[in-house]
C-alpha cells in the first residue's frame, strides 16, 4: 500500500549531482532512501547540495547515484560548514518554508552542528498543523560525550562543550515532545527520550532482505569447517574510532595468544584510529592473526565477506549500537558485545550472541576461549542468529514504519493533499539577535 500524501524528509546528510543531474549520495543512505520510497511510493528530500566541483565525502564506504525511477527526488539548499555561514540561513529557510507548505508529512531527525537550524522545518510544520515524524537515530548524548566533550583540551573547554551538549539535548527533547510520531532507533535512545516524546515507538535498522540471508546449506558447510578445529575467525566492520573498542578486541586476542589459543580477526573499515590499530597489532606481534583489510561495500559484497567468519565483534564502549548487528545476523554470525544498555536490549545473551563486561579485555578473551573450546555453543547461536535475521528484514521493518505513519492520517484521509487555508500567513518568527548568537555558539 502506497501513500496518498506528500512526504518530505529534511536532512543534513548532503548530496551532489553527477553529470546527468542524478542525485549522488552515500551508499548506505541510498539503501535507506530506496527502501523508504518502496514503502511510501515517493519521497521528497531536502538536503545540503554539494556543488559538483567540490569534494563530496561520505561516512560509509562509498557513494552511488540514485536511479531515476526509485521514487526519491531531491531539492538542495546551501551547505553549511561553520558559524561563519550564518548568512546562508535565510536562503535555507526559504527552501524549507516552500517545501514544508507543499508537504503533508515532514520527517526530521535529531540535528547536529552546524545544521541545528534545520529544526525550523519541524517547528514550522507543527505551527501549520502538519503531521510530523522525528527520528532519533542514536543516543547522541552519550556518543558526543565520549568523542567530543571528554576530549576537550582544557577543563573550561570541556565545561563549555558539556553545556552545548545539554542545549542540543534540550532541542531534541522539544522536537520529540511536539512530533506526531517519534521513531527511536536504538535501545539507548528509547531510554533517554521515550518519556519526553508525545508518541514514540522503538524501531530496528536492518538493511537485509530475506534473499540476503545466508542459505541453510551455506551455513551448514561453514559449521563443518568450524568443527575441524581450525582457529575461530572473528570479524568487525565499523568506523575505526575510539568508541568502537577495537583496541580491546586486539588486546583480548593477544591474551589468548599468551595462553596458546589462536583466534584470527579481520577489522574492516577505516577512520582516525586505523594507524593506531595497526601499531597496536604490530606491538603485540599479532600481524599473522589480526588484519585491517579496509572497507567493504554494503549489500552483497558485505554479506559474502562476513559469511566466511564465525563470530562478529561489536565491542562498542558507548551506547552506540549500529546496523552492523543485523548484517551479522543475516550472515548467521553471533555477535559478541560489551554490556551497555544498547547491547543488553539487542543481543539475546547466550542465544543468538554473547555479552561480556564493559571495557574488560580479560572477560572478552575468556568468552572467546569458551567458544574456541565449545564449538557447538557457537553453532547453536549461529542458527538462532539466522532465524532472527529472517524475522527482521528491511522490508518487514519499513512496512511496519510505513503503517505507523499512515495511521497518523486515519481520521484525516479526506484532507490528503488539500491546501491549508488560513486567514493570514502562518510563519515561524525569525530568530532574535540573542537566539542567533546562541545558534552560532552551538554550531561552533
The CATH superfamily of the largest domain is known as: Glycogen Phosphorylase B
Oligomer: single chain
* Low-confidence regions: 414-429
Per CATH, which architecture of the largest domain? 3-Layer(aba) Sandwich
Briefly note the structural class of the backbone. Answer: alpha/beta
Strand order, sheet with most strands: 6-4-1-7-8-9-10
What would you note in describing this structure?
With 444 residues, this protein is of the alpha/beta class. It has 16 helices and 16 strands. The strands form three sheets. Strands 6-4-1-7-8-9-10 form a seven-stranded parallel β-sheet, with helices on both faces. A six-stranded parallel β-sheet has the order 13-12-11-14-15-16, sandwiched between helices. Strand 2 and strand 3 (23-26) form a beta hairpin.
Write the layout of secondary structure elements.
Elements lengths: L6 E4 L5 E2 L5 E4 H14 L2 E6 L14 E3 L6 E6 L11 H14 L2 E5 L9 H9 L3 E6 L3 H10 L5 H24 L2 E4 L2 H7 L6 E3 L13 H11 L5 E6 L8 H13 L4 E6 L5 H10 L6 E2 L8 H7 L4 E4 L9 H7 L4 E4 L2 H4 L8 E4 L4 H13 L1 H16 L3 H14 L25 H10 L2
Parallel strand pairs: 1-4, 1-7, 4-6, 7-8, 8-9, 9-10, 11-12, 11-14, 12-13, 14-15, 15-16
Antiparallel strand pairs: 2-3, 3-5
Helix pairs in contact: 1-15, 2-3, 4-5, 8-13, 11-14, 13-14
Amino acid at each position: 500500500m502506497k501513500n496518498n500524501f506528500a512526504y518530505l524528509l529534511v536532512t543534513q546528510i548532503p548530496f551532489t549531482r553527477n553529470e546527468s543531474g542524478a542525485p549522488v549520495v552515500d551508499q548506505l543512505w541510498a539503501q535507506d532512501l530506496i527502501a523508504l520510497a518502496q514503502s511510501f511510493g515517493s519521497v521528497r528530500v531536502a538536503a545540503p547540495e554539494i556543488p559538483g566541483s567540490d569534494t563530496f565525502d561520505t561516512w560509509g564506504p562509498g557513494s552511488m547515484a540514485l536511479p531515476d525511477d526509485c521514487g526519491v527526488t531531491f531539492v538542495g539548499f546551501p551547505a553549511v560548514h561553520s558559524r561563519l555561514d550564518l548568512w546562508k540561513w535565510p536562503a535555507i529557510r526559504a527552501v524549507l518554508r516552500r517545501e514544508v507548505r507543499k508537504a503533508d508529512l515532514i520527517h526530521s531527525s535529531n540535528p547536529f552542528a552546524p545544521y541545528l537550524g534545520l529544526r525550523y522545518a519541524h517547528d514550522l510544520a507543527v505551527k501549520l498543523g502538519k503531521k510530523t515524524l522525528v527520528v532519533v537515530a542514536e543516543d547522541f548524548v552519550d556518543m558526543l560525550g565520549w568523542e567530543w566533550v571528554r576530549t576537550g583540551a582544557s577543563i573550561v573547554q570541556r565545561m563549555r562543550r558539556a553545556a552545548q551538549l545539554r542545549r542540543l539535548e534540550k532541542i531534541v527533547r522539544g522536537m520529540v515532545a511536539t512530533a506526531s510520531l517519534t521513531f527511536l532507533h536504538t535501545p539507548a535512545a528509547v531510554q533517554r527520550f521515550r518519556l519526553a516524546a508525545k508518541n514514540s515507538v522503538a524501531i530496528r535498522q536492518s538493511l537485509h532482505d530475506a534473499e540476503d540471508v545466508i542459505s541453510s546449506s551455506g551455513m551448514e558447510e561453514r559449521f563443518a569447517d568450524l568443527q575441524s578445529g581450525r582457529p575461530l575467525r572473528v570479524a568487525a566492520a565499523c568506523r575505526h574510532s575510539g568508541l568502537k573498542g577495537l583496541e580491546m578486541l586486539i588486546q583480548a586476542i593477544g591474551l589468548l595468544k599468551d595462553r596458546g589459543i589462536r583466534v584470527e580477526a579481520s577489522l574492516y573499515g577505516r577512520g582516525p584510529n586505523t594507524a593506531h590499530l595497526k601499531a597496536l597489532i604490530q606491538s603485540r606481534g599479532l600481524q599473522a592473526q589480526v588484519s585491517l583489510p579496509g572497507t567493504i561495500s554494503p549489500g552483497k559484497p558485505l554479506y559474502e565477506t562476513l559469511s566466511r567468519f564465525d563470530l562478529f565483534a561489536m565491542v562498542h564502549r558507548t551506547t552506540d549500537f549500529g546496523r552492523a548487528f543485523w548484517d551479522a545476523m543475516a550472515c548467521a554470525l553471533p555477535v559478541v558485545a560489551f554490556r551497555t544498555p544498547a547491547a543488553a536490549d539487542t543481543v539475546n545473551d547466550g542465544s543468538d550472541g554473547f555479552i561480556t563486561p564493559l571495557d574488560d579485555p580479560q572477560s572478552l578473551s575468556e568468552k572467546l576461549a569458551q567458544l574456541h573450546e565449545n564449538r557447538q555453543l557457537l553453532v547453536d547461536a549461529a542458527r538462532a542468529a539466522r532465524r532472527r535475521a529472517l524475522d527482521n528484514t528491511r522490508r518487514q521493518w519499513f512496512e511496519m514504519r510505513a503503517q505507523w505513519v499512515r495511521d497518523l492520517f486515519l481520521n484525516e484521509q479526506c484532507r490528503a493533499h488539500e491546501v491549508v487555508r488560513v486567514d493570514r500567513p502562518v510563519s515561524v518568527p525569525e530568530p532574535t539577535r540573542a537566539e542567533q548568537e546562541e545558534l552560532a555558539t552551538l554550531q561552533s
